[in-house]
Amino acid sequence: MASLRVLSGVQPTGNLHLGNYLGAIRNWVEGQSQYENFFCVVDLHAITAPHNPATLATDTYTIAALYLACGIDLTYSKIFVQSHISAHSELTWLLNCITPLNWLEDMIQFKEKAIKQGENVNVGLLDYPVLMAADILLYQADKVPVGEDQKQHLELTRDIAARFNYQFARKDPVLKLPDPLIRKEGARVMSLTDGTRKMSKSDPSEASRINLLDTPEQIQQKIKRCKTDPERGLVFDDPARPECHNLLTLYMLLSGKTKQTVADECQTMGWGQFKPLLAETAIASLQPIQAKYQAVMSDRGYLESVLRDGRQKAEEVASNTLSKVKSVLGYSVPV
Fold first, then answer.
1. Given 31, 85, 219, 231, which is the most exposed site by the fewest CB atoms within 10 A?
2. SS (H, E, C) 129-144
3. Measured between alpha carbons, how far is 48 from 55 in angstroms, rounded to an integer?
């Protein structure tokens, strides 16, 4: 029996941080042997907000190298760059033409980001969920690892696929409706400066996140200065202490200890005792990733071969899906 297929990706905008790793990539790694995996660097998504053309290509290779450094195994997984496969853009246009505008205007992330961009809101930001749908549907993904904040986009993907199948392929559906793959713990890692907000690359403050390539000194300083509260004794799940819950969760995930073990260990601690412990744990956890990353980046030929092989395998699947979509829409075959 063929394995279920998984599709996911990360934008090449800045360095990956602990939120990306603990909320997404580590989960990909732990479950990859159960599935057939396609992991892409979603560089088309990266330009929905202002970006730096001088660093986009470099950042793309950095993310691909970090995938490998974090443990993505090429035995089970393909790694490729989204923009290297033109089917992503073409299917987006085709799906645009069957997606109601009000569906996109109702997306929570669009509303939040549109406020930040003001009069500079671009069509790409509004259309981001359709591109995400195209990414997923091209590969006939069974499962999509998503955080809680992306569940609405995946629901939209299912709605678009169902609408397409109903209108054009009712007897023999062309597009598979994917299901979310959500891990309860660590699905939403919060900011170091505000325990009520998600850790994000878009946050202007570097102090809000620990990047996977941060030096030990940077990690120590960020944890030393992160927001806490005046209470002694550290506990999970107290809504009045979001930073406490977030930092304990980080420690739990990075140390590999159970929630109960961490709760017992830290229940009488003060921040002066806990912060150095968290910093030491974070540094030790990231050291193997950083060493593997440096090894991958020092061999450009190997990294390019990984992306070339991934593109070839992904393009075969994507082209097949795109051909079926165009056929039921009535397009002529190239002569």
1. 231
2. HHHHHHHHHHCCCCEE
3. 16
- For 53, the 3-state DSSP assignment is helix
Q: Starting from the edge strand earliest in sequence, which strands make up the sheet with 143-145, in order?
A: 77-81, 36-41, 5-10, 143-145, 179-181
Query: What's this model's pTM, rounded to 2 decimal places?
Result: 0.91
Return the active site residues: 113, 198, 201
Give the chain's length: 335
Please state, in angstroms and rounded to a whole number, the distance separating the CA atoms of residues 76 and 72.
8
End-to-end Cα, the chain, rounded Å: 37
As a whole number of angstroms, the distance between CA 67 and CA 99 comes to 32
Q: Residue 126: is it exposed, middle or buried by C-beta count within 10 angstroms (0-12/13-18/19+)? A: middle
CB atoms within 10 A of CB 321: 19
Chain segment 281-301, per-residue pLDDT in tens? 999 999 999 999 999 999 999
Matching residue, tokens 């007897």: 171
pLDDT over 90 at 116, yes or no: no
CB atoms within 10 A of CB 27: 20
CA 36/CA 232 separation, integer angstroms: 47
